[in-house]
Design brief:
Two copies of one chain form a homodimer.
Chain A: H1 13-26, H2 39-46, H3 50-62, E1 66-69, E2 73-76, H4 91-94, H5 97-104, H6 107-110, E3 119-120, H7 133-152, H8 161-172, E4 181-186, H9 188-200, E5 206-211, H10 215-223, E6 227-234, E7 237-238, H11 240-247, E8 252-257, H12 271-284, E9 288-291, H13 307-310, E10 317-322, E11 334-339, H14 340-354, H15 359-370, H16 373-399, E12 404-406, E13 412-416, H17 422-431, E14 434-435, E15 437-438, E16 451-455, H18 461-479
Parallel strand pairs in A: 3-14, 5-6, 5-8, 8-9, 9-10
Antiparallel strand pairs in A: 1-2, 4-11, 6-7, 10-11, 12-13, 13-16, 15-16
């Protein structure tokens, strides 16, 4: 019986033996009060050391699976493995409306999946080959040596103090007046946006945003039961005339904008329009949630203040920032800069949701930021993504016919094909192992059927060229060109 | 003007210079098209190298704060710093009911705060001095060298594959039949419990639990608008007769229990009662959320199966586990084991909330668990907390009069004082620099005014003795003994 045990190389043998005996007890193959082989017998049977067996028996005793009778040996405890009659619940029936809607709006579950060998333009995640792992390790080891034990125990809901201080300075460096404001650290933009809506909105409230807009934001707004009113976006950002019209339609609780390298269009709202937008919303007293999306990636040219900076001493802008768009999204660090009173409430909601964001991750990020490694990284990343953007733009112009290309940068290109349904195009391209994101998922109405987003950050130049030319060929066929 | 800049030692000088010039531009102290000193002049003014200045200027150019005219020098860009008229929102008025309730139920904000020099029995966090930082570092470096770049980019909502596989085995080792079930990784128990309620319950639903129970769970149940029906807990766990009575009172959507070292009482539900509880709830078809709280800490004695194991092949138990109670709570790793269909919905809700739990933290934890370091740690931790528990129990018996002590282990002692109000007692003790958690916060009704929880995990033996004797003295005065 025991000799059936297969010892594997990659795990401590005492753990393997312990787990093996445990599983036999749990399966009822070893009965209560049955005597186990002596450590000597077991050791010789398995060809392992006697110490290993004794160590395994000691753990089993600790965990209550065996007991030792002095001078008599080791015996199986009565662990009462009798399970009760099968009781099954049809969980499909138990899910509430929120759960169902979450699943329905879960794009990852319902969109075309990547398969090996495909060229995928779906992702707008940063290229991990640009990450400098050595610098990241250095930051980890540095924080560990300074305050490792502290970081590994519970922290504060608002976040890791040094990171908050750093980010306050960082926002001041963007021109934001931080007096009367504070920062809370979140698990990325997604949590930040969800916390803000959780704290401020009620089902049925109206919310104003660009159309198209970030699909995760659309999902979260829908999950909060909000009425989403989208305003068309043009080359200078949101259409201010349409905005004024929309504002007459009803009372708005809040608004949401992505002024820099807007997702999905890549449009940068001009400084003039930022100020105008601010003043229009001021007139109606509608607070602004500003999504700092890709702001870190902005290439040279004129510096553009975030809307939060235009607000000066005013407290009407809630800025949600995240580094995940450019660096280490796997560690999930974002932040909300807002009025102190609001931050206090956000802190309580955050604590009720998950206590706090990993202190380890916050501490490493802080170290990485303040060491200057981030500055070096962002300089490199900006240059590389800029070059890649220009290359992708050229390919798009060369290969994809009959199109309008919006935006001026970022990690993706947004194309209007005109008269071609992008889901039909996707189906055709998919047959040729090329996939992308159909643009309709970014629209808050039923529009955008003729648009697509092409993320290129993790695709090689060779594949960009190849993939775009396939998209172009299939578009030509569909468009009858 | 530039010579006012103070150069600090702990930061790269080019970053300091860049930030200094940036802030002068943002403050309007440097005007558009103004010429900056040449790199040579600036270097000599600040007594730094010319390269440093050139590097800072290069960054400023990248970020759009300056422009360079060939052969003429470096000039300030027009960054349009004009902020708009002040617009303030009274955020206090904007917070919704959920935000307000979160704040109101936020114990951290409203309970007595620790001050330097106090002996605090409030925490039941693990003692970080038991953490082995070297082994943790080893796990980090190991994962980094194997798949560092991958871990730092986006991961999956369900969690890090290797950790999920490990935990499925881990649950099987507890006697749980995992067929037809799956695991999702969460940011600790708090998020796990919140996700489950988010997915299954509607406002106004009835939920059944022990009374008293985990105060964070009470908060989350209240935030979900549930009607909480508490069943008294005795030495063998929840009172089954009272449970049967309660079940007649209405329809229950779900139930929540902490069978091992129950928080706050420290009671372990007997194997017989676990089976009985399971069968009673089966009769009414009320699913069970089992809180694995402190199960990892269970000291020797008979092994007790979790309720999830009693269910055998049945899918009616949702097990929410967390290592945060014993190890590295700062990195926030928990998990939910449940029916596969339910896991699918939980995954979509998790994705909508924060995309996924830090892949870095999951990967380190996985490495730490599978290396055997966790086994070694838990053996040590069990012994140390057991000894400490026994010491604290002895002190409580010696010093605190007129009391009933519940439970049999864990990191805290729960005391019923009888006829003494624990908040009055806290006030008196606080004057003598001793604080603890008044027990009423764990009750779902208005009971427990005469109870208190004493967490000892992070308190030295000397302070346990001293603190308990002060509590005893003050209790005697209040009780007139």
């Amino acid at each position: 019986m025991f000799s059936d045990m297969k010892i594997r190389d990659n795990k401590f043998v005492y753990i393997q033996l312990k787990d093996y005996i445990k599983s036999m007890i749990l399966k009822g193959l070893l009965r209560a009060d049955e005597k186990l082989p002596s450590s000597r017998e077991m050791a010789s049977m398995l060809n392992i050391s006697r110490n290993t067996v004794m160590y395994a028996y000691e753990f089993l005793q600790d965990e209550g699976f065996v007991y030792i009778k002095r001078g008599k040996g080791t015996f199986v405890s009565d662990v009462k493995v009798n399970t009760q009659g099968k009781w099954n619940i049809d969980w499909e029936d138990e899910i509430n409306e929120y759960g169902r809607l979450s699943e329905k709006l879960d794009i990852i579950k319902h969109e075309t999946k990547w398969k090996s060998g495909m060229i995928s333009f779906k992702s707008i995640a940063p290229d991990e080959n640009l990450f400098n792992i050595e610098e990241f390790k250095k930051s980890f080891l540095n924080r560990m040596s300074i305050e490792g034990k502290k970081i590994l125990n519970y922290g504060y809901a608002q976040g890791y103090k040094f990171l908050i201080e750093y980010l306050l300075k960082y926002m001041e460096n963007k021109g934001v007046n931080t007096s009367g404001k504070d920062i809370i650290i979140t698990n990325g933009f997604t949590e930040g946006f969800d916390l803000v809506l959780s704290c401020l909105t009620n089902r049925g409230d109206n919310i104003l945003c660009e159309n198209p807009t970030h699909n995760t934001a659309i999902k979260i707004m829908k999950l909060h039961g909000l009425n989403i009113k989208g305003v068309q976006i043009g080359k200078e950002g949101v259409d201010l005339n349409e905005l004024k019209e929309k504002l007459k339609e009803g009372k708005f609780k809040i608004s949401y904008f992505i002024p820099s390298y807007h997702n999905p269009t890549g449009i940068v709202m001009s400084p003039e329009n930022r100020a105008k937008l601010y003043n229009i919303l001021k007139g109606y007293n509608i607070p602004i949630i500003e999504d700092g999306f890709n702001e870190e990636l902005r290439y040279s040219g004129a510096h553009v203040l975030p809307i939060a900076a235009i607000a000066g001493k005013g407290n009407s802008v809630i800025y949600v920032g995240s580094f995940s768009k450019v660096l280490f999204p796997g560690i999930r660090i974002g932040w909300i800069l807002s009025d102190k009173v609001l931050t206090g409430y956000l802190e309580s909601v955050k604590r009720a949701r998950n206590i706090h964001t990993s202190s380890l991750d916050q501490a490493i990020f802080y170290d990485y930021l303040q060491s200057g490694d981030f500055n070096k990284y962002i300089k490199k990343a900006r240059r590389i993504y800029r070059e890649k953007y220009e290359f992708a733009l050229k390919c798009a112009k060369n290969y994809i016919p009959n199109r309008e290309i919006l935006g001026e940068g970022g990690m993706h290109i947004f194309i209007k094909l005109k008269d071609i349904n992008s889901r039909q195009l996707l189906e055709k391209c998919c047959e040729r192992n090329v996939i992308f994101t159909p643009g309709d998922i970014f629209y808050v109405d039923d529009k955008g059927q003729d648009t697509l987003r092409l993320g290129f950050s993790r695709v090689s130049r060779e594949d960009i060229k190849k993939g775009f030319s396939i998209i172009g060929e299939e578009a030509k066929k569909l468009g009858g060109i």
